[in-house]
């Protein structure tokens, strides 16, 4: 699987920017990604905090 160029913390930060009221197109332009990629990341990491994402990664590594 291809490694993401963004960390979980960066992805969650982008999602929080969009939820705070910044238009999605502006968030995507600032960070250099497509809206489709943004919405895929939002579906995976939406509603999470950084600690939740770290715990999820640790569980995935443990199960691998």
Give a brief description.
This protein has 64 residues and is mostly helical. It contains 4 helices and no strands.
Could you explain how this protein is built, in words?
- The protein has 64 residues and is an all-alpha fold.
- It has one domain (8-63).
- It has helices at 8-19, 24-31, 35-45, 50-63.
- α1 (8-19) crosses α3 (35-45).
- 6% of the residues are buried.
- The mean pLDDT is 91.
Write the layout of secondary structure elements.
Layout: H1 8-19, H2 24-31, H3 35-45, H4 50-63
Helix pairs in contact: 1-3
Task: Report the sheet with the most strands, covering strand number, pairing sense and barrel closure.
Answer: none
| Quaternary form | single chain
How large is the count of helical segments?
A: 4
**String of helices and strands:** HHHH
Number of strands: 0
Averaged pLDDT, please?
Answer: 91
How many domains in all? Answer: 1
What proportion strand?
under 5%
Q: N-to-C terminal Cα separation, in Å?
A: 13 Å
Specify the helix fraction band.
Answer: over 70%
Low-confidence stretches: none
Structural class: mainly alpha
Q: Which descriptors would you attach to this protein?
A:
64 residues, mainly alpha, globular, 0% strand
